[in-house]
Structures are given as C-alpha cells and as structure tokens.
Amino acid sequence: EPEVTQTPSHQVTQMGQEVILRCVPISNHLYFYWYRQILGQKVEFLVSFYNNEISEKSEIFDDQFSVERPDGSNFTLKIRSTKLEDSAMYFCASSEPGQGSYEQYFGPGTRLTVT
Amino acid sequence: RKEVEQDPGPFNVPEGATVAFNCTYSNSASQSFFWYRQDCRKEPKLLMSVYSSGNEDGRFTAQLNRASQYISLLIRDSKLSDSATYLCVVNMDFNKFYFGSGTKLNVKP
User: What is the pLDDT of residues B79-96, one digit of tens each?
Assistant: First the structure.
C-alpha cells in the first residue's frame, strides 16, 4: 500500500538555525500539505500546495516558512530561523482530489526540537 | 467560536459498548468532513469521509447534519483496539483544513 514518507524522524536544532523537513507524498497524489502538532495540542494546518504553488496558508505560515517541490517527488518545508516555539511534530500529507473528497493521507511525522 | 469543536472526553467504555462522538463546525460553507483517529504520538489516520447521506464502514457510522453544523461518529461493538483519540476535520476554505482537538476514547476489558 502506497504511503507518505518523511525524513528525518527527529531533528534537533539550535535556535536561529535553518531546518528543512522532507516528505515524499504518494506518487499519484496532486495536493500536498504541511501540518504541525505541538505536544498535547491539536493538529494545526500550515499550508497546502498544488500545481507548484501555495494553494492556502494559515496565519502560522509566516515569512520564516517556505515550501518547495524541488524534483517532482519530494516536498519540503523550510524554517529559516527556528524559534523555541517551533518545537513540534510536523506532518506532511497528500491527497488525490480526483476522488472529489480531498481525503488526506499523513506521513509519520518529523519531531522538531529547537534548543 | 472555534472553527471545529469536540468534547475532549475521555469516554471510558467497556468492550462491546456503543459510543458516539459529535463535532460542531463554524463555517456553514464547509464542504468536506472527515473523521481521523490518532494514536499516542502517531500520525492521524483516515477513518472515514462524512457524506451528506451518511456512511457506514463496518462498525463505524458517520452522519452529517448541515442545518445544525455538526458531524457524528458512532462506533458499535467497541474493541480494545478502538482506544485512540478521534479527530474531526473540516475544510474552511477551498484547500484549508481545520482539526478539532480530538475526543479520547478508552475501551476497557
């Protein structure tokens, strides 16, 4: 069964450093998403991406965040200058809207720890 | 009003019980509704989409009430493996999705 994969599973970084989180969506899916979940809190939408551009973004997704699909298979989230409050689990998801329902399938997540 | 609201629970039920969760949403224009389950420190896993006509998948039944802006999930014959947090997901804009905080279910032997 096809699945979304994410690397690394855990990333530790110092405040102010740049991090890139990587995702490989399911191959025939067309929409891609990033979410974050701070420990003990709800899953929060960050951004959706379609046809090589951002489709929607939340208030959380400010100028320090960017997304890219560099090579037709990977989908990345870059955080330019990490803050302590960026520590969270980051989930990538993809969906095949041809089914008409935008059912999203999630990767296992990258746990980001900012020290 | 929060975009998506759920009773956090926990719901503690014995094996074999029937349990129901509700979720309310704020945007009357929402078109897509889902239930996901999330196990501790794991990713959300799609349980089912929720259609206007309602839908059933084995022991799970989902309903949508547009007039009152809520969706529901019914689990029959609860199993120990059903213990998880159940997440309600609703789209607010075209491709922007909001999650509820989840309802925790504990199924006891």
Answer: 999 999 999 999 887 789
